Amino acid sequence: MPKTLDCLCVGIVVADMVCHPIEEMPRAGALTRTDSIEFSIGGCSANLGVDLARLGLNVGLSGRVGSDLFGREVCRLLDGSGVDTSLIETSTTAPTSSTFVVNVAGEDRRFIHCVGANGEFDGSQISPDEIRGVKAVFIGGFCLMDSFTPEYAIRLFRIARENHVKTFLNVVLSENTDTMAWLTGVLPWTDYFFCNDDEARRITGELDPVKQVDALRGLGTGTAIVTRGEHGAVLAGVDKRFKVGVYPVKPVDATGTGDAFTAGFLYGVLRGVSDGECLKFGSAMGASCVRSVGATTGVFNASELADFVERNPLDVEVLDQ
């Protein structure tokens, strides 16, 4: 791994199989055709790594795959995307994590997921020397990796804080996740926390997105960002709260949209722009993602992102404190 990284991505790595939208779910025993079923990189940390590399950042990825065809192919695709994979471990006991993503026209996606090797990953192999000097550490898929407990997350973020490295956290919540037990100790070490509105409701008990970001801030994170699908996103920071909509594009597949949003936002943070501009970058990257099947297939590079944001105005509303 290079001595200096813009971002070290830590967490879930997934092999995605994504079907082109079908008209309706088949009944039991029936067959429905789709135009394509595509194999692609998936998982919050892997998606973010590819998106950031597409934006021209120097990115490393730490995670775990199986010693199988899926694992080898995911690593090959990551290497080809410019992501440093030297910190990816290979399990001899579990398969590569995988997800089958079912897209039905006019409906939200359905997921069939195997946790696999992600369940064995704990990040303990990441040394302080591998964190020192990087600009940002991102943990993706927190709460879904059984072995990556809050203690391991706090360890990484404490080292990052001690070395003035920005910390970013994203969660994936399963039905049996004790969210407060996992998040209470970690959020005070988190500079930027990302989740969607459903996850925010489960964490905070609030339905209103503004109350959600306020409650997340109350749990200790420096900045809370709640994404809301077609309704945009809401942010609460140290000084201000913001609300942003979405760029109007025709969606094909929403897989990876939240990760693309996070990549655009993180890119803005590392460039030193305002929270409002970070939200625009995030929204633009999300818009680029939904145009193609797959989590990372259609995302912008840096010049495409800059051109899109310049040509397509998007209002960022400052909310009353």
Describe the overall structure.
The chain is of the alpha/beta class and 321 residues long. It has one domain: Ribokinase (UDP-N-acetylmuramoyl-L-alanine:D-glutamate ligase, 3-Layer(aba) Sandwich), CATH 3.40.1190. The chain has helices at 44-54, 69-80, 128-131, 150-162, 179-183, 197-204, 209-218, 257-271, 275-289, 302-311; strands at 7-11, 14-19, 37-42, 59-62, 64-66, 89-91, 98-102, 110-114, 136-142, 166-171, 192-196, 223-227, 233-236, 241-244, 316-319. The strands form 3 sheets. A 9-stranded mixed beta sheet has the order 4-1-9-10-11-12-13-14-15, with helices on both faces. Helix 6 (197-204) crosses helix 7, helix 8 (257-271) packs antiparallel against helix 9 (275-289) and helix 9 (275-289) crosses helix 10 (302-311). The protein starts with 6 loop residues before the first strand and ends with a strand.
Write a short abstract of this structure.
The protein is an alpha/beta fold. 32% of the residues lie in helices and 22% in strands.
List keywords for this structure.
321 residues; UDP-N-acetylmuramoyl-L-alanine:D-glutamate ligase; nine-stranded mixed sheet; four-stranded mixed sheet
